[in-house]
Design brief:
Amino acid/polyamine transporter I; 20 helices; 78% helix; binds phenylalanine
């Protein structure tokens, strides 16, 4: 190691950074849509159980591995569990790399829609505009997509370049409060809309008739994605935590905030959709549609969102901020691995990693018609079917592979490492000390991490292999 490792300056700084990693497009883009697809209610309840029973214990496991070793993911697993476990760390780095390569493209769309809605705020919404067409046109415009994702990648690199304290923590301290403020404003506004009752009932009234095995597994898969688990992001962030901080308390705060934000975002979006009576269109346009096709237009429709013209650009600022605080954690996983393992300086490592990831971002940016080789990229035959579910384009394949394969397998390995290969003393001394809150029970945690969590994740993987369930 050539440079002094940074540390968070305070416990609040760490919690904001980790919460920023967790809150992202998963909360604003994926969760509302899968809740919609699975008819809300019962699905939300199952999701909450997965978060509490699987997500929370694994969050603690990742943070404790990081803090114990003070190393990034590969070094941390090697030291905490044994040299062979470095391979699991490498798998995590590869996952961070792959996820980052396409995440910045979606993040770029938020910049585009910020620009569009800001323009409409000033110049008025052009009558007869089809948002479906606006979306398709912008995503098929290769030059535009490259520009947007490059802008977002540069922003990400610029934060990570300055390190844990002066980059990541500083930006999280600045952006997360803004994000909470915007969300609160939108949430309060949603209660002035006529569709809010219907939206709340859809989200919170369970009807178990609608629930099938696939939905349960989808809820479990999403709990990994949304909490940034399964690839070492939390191991890496955990490696900068000081000894005085309670990992148990921090994990609880991060998990609760991430969950509350996902639910609040869903209430806001569904309220707008129900108020406008746009349920059918949303079902047709899919995940992308809810955030980038249905919503922008509804902000400008008369009599739906009070102050909508002003709130629309703010909403896309929210999406961009949430995405940035996640992309910086993804790049940190990759960069800190290069820094720790190869003794490269932070500046050089960040630029090299950011640049290399961007090569693949080019493929992701051109995946929507921007260039036919990228759009039609595919892996034929049974391998393609098993690992990519026959998906085409770098974007489609990477998203499928990360959500269905990389996060669950990485998560399973980390869980087994913490539950079966680390000694009881090692994990207990990280979790239990004078800072530990009274509600925490180490024996229960150990039971969850040794049996329940691995069993649940193994079920996902089996479901993917044998039943063709798709979590992306
Ligand atoms: N948790 C982020 C989200 O919800 C995604 C993410 C996964 C970020 C893994 C970092 C690591 O969007």
């Amino acid at each position: 190691m050539t440079e002094q490792r940074g540390n968070w300056t305070s416990s609040a700084g760490f919690i904001l950074a980790a919460t920023g990693s967790a809150i992202g497009l998963g909360n604003l883009w994926k969760f509302p849509f899968i809740t919609w697809e699975n008819d809300g209610g019962a699905f939300v309840l199952v999701y909450l159980v997965c978060i509490a029973a699987v997500g929370l214990p694994i969050m603690m496991a990742e943070l404790l591995i990081g803090r114990r070793t003070q190393k990034s993911v590969v070094g941390a697993l090697k030291e905490a569990v044994g040299p062979a476990w470095g391979i699991v760390g490498l798998w995590g780095v590869l996952c961070g790399f792959t996820l980052l390569s396409y995440y910045t493209v979606i993040a770029g769309w938020s910049l585009f829609f910020f620009g569009k809605t800001a323009g409409w705020m000033v110049g008025g919404f052009p009558e007869g505009t089809s948002l479906g067409e606006v979306f398709t046109e912008q995503s098929a415009n290769g030059g535009l997509q490259l520009g947007l994702s490059l802008a977002f990648s540069i922003a990400t690199v610029s934060v990570v370049y300055f390190g844990v304290q002066k980059g990541i923590e500083k930006i999280a301290r600045l952006f997360l409060p803004i994000l909470f403020a915007i969300l609160t404003l939108l949430f309060v506004t949603s209660f002035a809309m006529s569709g809010s009752g219907e939206a709340l009932a859809f989200i919170f009234r369970p009807s178990f008739g609608e629930l099938d095995g696939g939905s349960v597994l989808e809820a479990l898969g999403h709990s990994f994605f949304t909490l940034s688990l399964g690839m070492g992001a939390m191991i890496t962030y955990g490696s900068y935590i000081s000894r005085e901080q309670s990992i148990v308390k921090a994990s609880a705060v991060i998990v609760v905030l991430d969950t509350v934000i996902a639910l609040v975002a869903t209430v806001i979006m569904f309220t707008v959709i129900f108020t406008a009576g746009m349920q059918d269109q949303v079902s047709e346009t899919g995940t992308v549609g809810m955030l980038f096709i249905s919503l922008p237009q509804l902000f400008f429709a008369e009599g739906i969102v009070p102050g909508g013209t002003f709130l629309a650009p703010l909403f896309y600022v929210l999406v961009a901020l949430a995405a940035l605080t996640s992309t910086m954690s993804l790049l940190e996983v990759v960069a800190s691995f290069v820094i720790d393992e190869y003794g490269v300086g932070r500046h050089k490592a960040t630029l090299a990693c950011g640049g290399t990831v961007f090569v693949f971002t080019i493929l992701a940016a051109l995946s929507f018609g921007g260039a036919s080789f990228a759009t039609n990229l595919s892996v034929p035959g049974p391998i393609g079917d098993l690992f990519f579910a026959g998906k085409t384009s770098w974007f489609g394949m990477a998203d499928h592979f990360v959500s269905n394969w990389m996060l669950p397998t990485g998560g399973l390995a980390i869980t087994i490492a913490a539950g079966w290969f680390m000694t009881r003393d090692a994990s207990e001394s990280e979790l239990v000390d004078e800072t530990t809150p009274g509600w925490f029970n180490y024996g229960a945690w150990r039971l969850f991490i040794r049996f329940l969590a691995p069993a649940a994740i193994a079920t996902i993987i089996i479901a993917v292999i044998f039943f063709g369930v798709d979590f992306s």
